[in-house]
Specification:
By secondary structure, the chain is α+β, with helices and mostly antiparallel strands. It has one domain: Alpha-Beta Plaits (2-Layer Sandwich), CATH 3.30.70. It contains three helices and four strands. It has a four-stranded antiparallel β-sheet with strand order 2-3-1-4. Helix 1 runs antiparallel to helix 2. The longest helix is centred in the middle third of the chain and has 17 residues.
Length: 97
């Protein structure tokens, strides 16, 4: 069994012609359509799932930005992985909801 992790992704699109926020929206749409648990924040989107599935969603999200017309994309990842225990967004931020 693979542990559940958290992956924070920040996608920074570069384009001289297309609005950056619109390009980021294309990445967020991929994440939303994946059905994976996630939280969108002003600086990154945090997802919850196995590392393999999250990395695949992240790859699709960055490709969606390129396909939407970005000239290039900078992608920043942060992951929290525990050896023998799942990582939950709820455990970290649930008390603030």
């Amino acid at each position: 069994m693979k542990n559940i992790i958290n992956l924070g992704i920040q996608i920074v699109p570069k384009s001289k012609l297309i609005d950056s926020y619109w390009l980021v929206d294309q990445a967020i749409e991929v994440i939303q359509k994946s059905g994976i648990k996630h939280v969108v924040t002003p600086f990154e989107t945090v997802m919850e799932g196995t590392q393999d599935e999250l990395m695949e969603i992240a790859r699709q999200a960055q490709q969606a930005v390129l396909d939407a017309g970005a000239d290039e994309v900078l992608v920043y990842y942060r992951m929290q992985i525990r050896k023998d225990k799942d990582v939950s967004i709820e455990d970290k931020t649930g008390k603030y909801q």
